[in-house]
Structures
1.
Amino acid sequence: MKLDTRAMRYLASEDWRVLTAVEMGSKNHELVPTPLIEKIARLKGGASGVHKSISALAKVGLIARVKEAKYDGYRLTYGGLDYLALHTHSARKDIYSVGTRIGVGKESDIMIVADNQGTQKVLKIHRLGRISFRTVKSNRDYLKNRASGSWMYLSRLAAMKEFAFMKALLAEGFPVPEPIAQSRHTILMALIDAFPLRQISAVPDPAKLYGELISLILRLAKHGLIHGDFNEFNILIKEIKVTTESGEEALTLEPVIIDFPQMVSMEHQNAEMYFDRDVECIKRFFSRRFHFTSTEPGPFFKDAKRAMKKAGLTRLDATVEASGFTKKMLKDLEAAIREKEAMKADGNNSDEEEEESEEDDDDEDSSDNGGEIIIGVANEVDDLDAEVASKSTEDEVQ
Ligand code: ADP
Ligand code: MG
């Protein structure tokens, strides 16, 4: 699955209205029956107008027809949800054009986008329900048992949670990309001009960088948080040129952390395991890549927890939990993320290979658009869109 904006500019305003109607209908229908789509869309052209739009949308794969024993209906596809999110970002003037895709993971697509000032940003599209062919083969039961449609709910939750954490972390002065906006399963954030640690073959002072990364783990812990995936892919290294007192040019390295949907609280029942895993990940990487091993043991979870209690700082785990997530939402999301992790471990023993050999799993990569695509939002956002846009930010999930 990848974002494909080609059909976007050809959609008429009625088509957007019908697409939005399918989205609204899917809040309580796995398959949205055609009469319901008609009712929600309330097109001036009546049923025939709706049918015309339905065919247009189905033709470009934004909705899909599903025949079931009880009734036939339509469901929104990932493509359809991508379009709706882009439409919202573009109506808010946050995105004007979509450029190249810079990353594709199992859980997300990362796109470079720009606003109409030409400022580049990053759009992260969560794809939590996505399962690769490789893993599908060994997970047929998993697929069978999965409530269909939950990909939309889970991807949306992942985006909401990540956005909430990024805001809270930035407010506390943590080095994270500035979160700009969230719509449905997508997050818009500042583009960091940096490479992931993974791509850096040598650093002038490994001990210093190691110390900084461990400090970040401990600083998160003081605020009640464990990143949960603190690895060389999720740490970007900014190179900053500085002039030393003696007038020489030197490079300083500044880590920026990304990727937060799996963050856990220091009070989580498996907190110690996640904490140790994050620490171990950095240790292993520094020893393999830079042949650096710290002479100090730890840090240890027990000490970090004690420090957290003593410090009495704002508890970001509580802040985020208080920001509109129900216990059920957090549990659902966590279960999906852990399932995914388990599948990853099952399908491939080496994380590194997994990340490196990542390729798109379903559709042909027909248009990795080298150039940018302008989003054609020729049609004004009408009241229904506005209604859904506000609805979807307030009560994204039923
Ligand atoms: P995933 O959940 O799929 O791992 P990430 O948020 O870790 O997604 O992003 C995947 C990759 O995309 C990162 O390793 C990084 O190279 C790039 N990336 C993500 N966000 C940004 C950003 N704000 N600026 C620059 N590059 C980014
Ligand atoms: Mg990542």
2.
Amino acid sequence: MPEFQKKTVHIKDPAKVEEIICGLIKGGAAKLQVITDFDMTLSRFSHNGKRCPTCHNVIDNCKYVSDECRKKLHELKEKYYAIEIAPELTIQEKYPYMIEWYTKSHALLIEQRFQQDKLEEVIRDSDIMLKEGYETFFDKLNEHTVPVFIFSAGLGDVLEEAIRQSGVYYPNVKVISNFMDFDENVDLAILGGYLFVQSIEKGAKHACAGAVAEDQKRMSWNEDGRRCSGPETPIQPDQQWDRPWDTSGGLSAALQNAVDKPLIPGVIKGFKGELIHVYNKHGDALRRTEYFSHLKENSNIVLLGDSLGDLVMADGVSVENILKIGFLNDKDLEIDSDPTSTSKTDSLNKFPTDLNGQSAIRAHDAVVFQIDESLEKYMDLYDIVLVKDETLDVANSILQKIL
Ligand code: C5P
Ligand code: MG
């Protein structure tokens, strides 16, 4: 296959790869399934020399996140991403730091009260991009109804919207990821800078609108359920405002309508289910078992990932042949291309001291060491390693043979 001649392709054991591919070809579409990571595997790591965002970065960098919060998120990324990719640390050592990173960054997103109805715009305006050849990849797999399992430690809402906007969110695609939990039954409205809570029970005889704002003002709604510009009456710090509405139409009907079709869109209040981070992709037993239990016949697997944490995505799945393709991205782009840059030194020095056995190494040496060591490690663990490859050409050429 000519795609295998590309400079980006590194294979430790070509005979083994050939044998696996022959097994995949023999099984054809009926036995095949694809298990893939999303960020930096299906999505691009860089484009025209510029780093592309992860799902999280799409939200971090959007206009609905305050500058102060963005700064905090970037500081977290600088510290924890260095740990995520550090070859000298074991997965066990990295694990608690990943939980710390996700916990802190997700808490910041919740604090920002991100609104569900902004997702489409935010993703459209972002630089997130799927790898070259994504159309062929998804079209072909859909055409042959090959199950595609996207298992991502990114943000499910962002990745689903990204593949939807790219026109490839086909019915054969199943996404498991971190999904935002938007408040829908209780609309939390930030209007004019004031926070009000309207709690409306479906089917209740009356709706109560209780307003307890930080500035101790109360507010009212007009007929279409939106805030009216009427006078705001200051209330006492411990005073609640609570009154039944007439159910015979008017405001009450508007509020009831708002329950069925919220006029004020959902605001993030947390995340659904178990946290998926970069190094616990063997976990989330329930959701994975449910999905894979229907796919016992699909024991020929093409696995795509970019992290060593992605290698366990098929653990527990019945396997006859598995081909693991790993993208090794350009680590130089991660930090900065200037070897004497203090940002490299800074990020390396941000390692927790108990883990930072390498801190005496000059920053540049450490980064070079990281790339070399990663390639060796990646070649031991992935059957095919694609270095700085922003295309799905290799995967597509293999699929072409199988399907
Ligand atoms: O889809 P995938 O599993 O690759 O998504 C995880 C990626 O999200 C990680 O590579 C990590 O660097 C990134 N991430 C991020 N910001 C966070 C948490 C994770 O960019 N707050
Ligand atoms: Mg990834």
